[in-house]
Amino acid sequence: MKKNNVSTNRVCIIGLGYVGLPLAVQSALKGFEVFGLDMDKEKIKKIQAGKSPIEEEFLHKNLPIVKLTATTDEKIIKQSDIVLVCVPTPVDKLFFPDLSPVRGAVASIVRNFKKGQLIVIESTINPGVCEEIVEPMFAEAGFKVGKDYFLAHCPERINPGDPKWNVTNIPRVVGSFDKQGLDKALNFYRAIIDAEIFPMKSIREAEAVKVVENSFRDINIAFVNELAKSFDKMGIDVKDVITGASTKPFSFMAHWPSCGVGGHCIPVDPYYLIERAKLSGFDHEFLKIARKINNSMPLYTVELLHEELNKIKKPLNGTKIGILGLSYKANVDDLRETPALKVIEEIKKHGAKVEIFDPYFPKMSTVKNIEELLKKSEAVVLVTDHKAFKEIDPKLLKKHKIKIIIDGKNCLDKITFEKQGVIYKGIGR
Predict the structure, then answer these.
(1) Which terminus of the chain faces fewer neighbouring Cβ atoms within 10 Å, N or C?
(2) Is 154 assigned a catalytic role?
């Protein structure tokens, strides 16, 4: 396709989720013929009707105006010049990486192979996956990398709900097995993304980039979560301290404590590095400690609730607790690794009665709005900092005789709630 400076123009994206669907729409906007492959029939129906199954402004605006063929038929792969793998890479209940979605996607490409295809793995993977898992699957079928096809890795970068940074303008890195494959991948991404596309020296380095990015964030969040627990014992407001530290114009980057770390990346990616490093004889002690701390925060949040109830001589057992939020982050409909579910589970274990409201999940909510939740509650735990929750009037809590609010995101004004006679407790404040 001349105007895109690439000789190929048919793109197939496997996995139409938070990563794949925006990428499919952006590729279509840039003039590529795009096929989207996903096994979720309901999702396919919505996409075919021009309706986004994901709450994302970019998709709501652009999906209805692009030509995008969405299907559950993997034979569409054979018609494509470029195939992007955007499937999930989760961990199991024991936090062990589950690469079966990637294996399944690659197997479908092998079954529908077209000579000369550029295959790009966008799914977050640990260093070595392309060399140790993906390439051998093609080799077993008789296809040679660099000759019959080209294999690259461009780790996804997406931030759901971000009004500034999205699939159109976030810089990317790309690595491949050889120069020809790297050039093809660079040409494609430079044709669809209005940001720098940085070439890595090897595909393994490209794989390492994403896990380093998110492990960095996980470690720093764990640090401030531990500070929150420590400062709570000392009567220090951790939010004020971090705000003060942020006045230093260099060598400090603010991270904030909360009731837990959610999303597909931060609570998952470190495990991919931890487990792969074990195979090479290295033990990531620091990463494991960070994961342990961050995994403890939902339970810690419930402990705070328990302590505040004890102060007014009220047991958690039998008390009506309102939960504000299910999403792992503000203003999106995303439950991936959300701490809310762990908070709810733990509260129920103590025999409390739970009411739930999240405007992005009406079917999972037990009430229709905030006021109905307050009417049915004696104490409230804010788990997600949706805009609507941040704007709650403290007088409304007083009106409904809410005795306690646990602010799991430290997003509310502590003083205004206390002035209304509501016991406020944040994470480390």
Answers:
(1) N
(2) no
